[in-house]
Specification:
- The protein folds into 2 domains: about 1-55; about 75-225, 3-Layer(aba) Sandwich (Rossmann fold), CATH 3.40.50.620.
- Helix content is about 50%, strand content about 10%.
- The chain contains 10 helices and 5 strands; from the N terminus they run H-H-H-H-E-H-H-E-H-E-H-E-H-E-H.
- The protein has helices spanning about 1-15, 20-35, 40-55, 60-70, 95-100, 110-120, 140-150, 170-175, 195-205, 230-250; strands spanning about 80-85, 125-130, 160-165, 185-190, 210-215.
- It has a 5-stranded parallel β-sheet, sandwiched between helices.
- Helix 9 (about 195-205) links the parallel strand 4 (about 185-190) and strand 5 (about 210-215).
- The longest helix has 23 residues, at about 230-250.
- It is elongated and about 70 Å long.
Length: about 270
Amino acid sequence: MGDVFFVASKIAWGLMRVDSLILALLLVGTLALWLGSWQTGRVLVSLSLLVAAVATLSPLGGAMLAALERRHAVPRISGPVAGIVLLGGAEDPVSTALRGQPSVNEAGERFLAALDLARRFPEAPVIFTGGSGRLIPAAIPEAEVARALLTGAGLAPERLLLEGASRNTAENARLSADLAPERDGQWLLVTSAFHMPRAVETFCAAGWRDITPYPVDFRSRAGAPFSWDPAGRLEAFNTGFREYVGLAVYRATGRAAHPLPRGCLYRG
């Protein structure tokens, strides 16, 4: 069942991406014009331009990200720390294989935060959870890229616990729970701020307790002056839209807990 969900989710998202929708409308509309269906062609081409304008020029994408990122603030950590859980997704295994050195993508701040937390709490183990979220896995597993990055930056290898089989957030939560040692205190959950609402609900559904969300990699720019960045706004729209769809699907399929069960979040 997990394999079906994984494959279906990847295919569905590929079709639902806003840029995929724009391209499909434009192609079908152009074809209709060439075939002489002027009214249908004009409607579809105009609709593609409207969707493109909303996604690349309006602040809607940034607003979606901001709403997600506001749900969990960066905490002031007090009390004992049982461990640090770093969600995968910031690695670039393709570039790592091509260049021969560990590479990260735009979410690389996750590693910086995990390393900083590991320095501040030297007794806490660090769990990295991430296999491959691709339909066709890269030559190097994400977990091996993470190992090279974290230990190369000075993290003691005996503190690092690697989970390299998960392909999505639900599997991150379920499989990393098997690695978590019995320790008193809170578990610091590190992932991108826009992804944190789904991550928290998913970890709660998987039975985790005493979680402290530690969001990083904030993408929204509330209050920043307007800049001409259609590609950036399209990426923000896609990212926000994907998270809302993912959260809805996870809740509907029982992979995310809403409302959060008692004891899931650490209260000190």
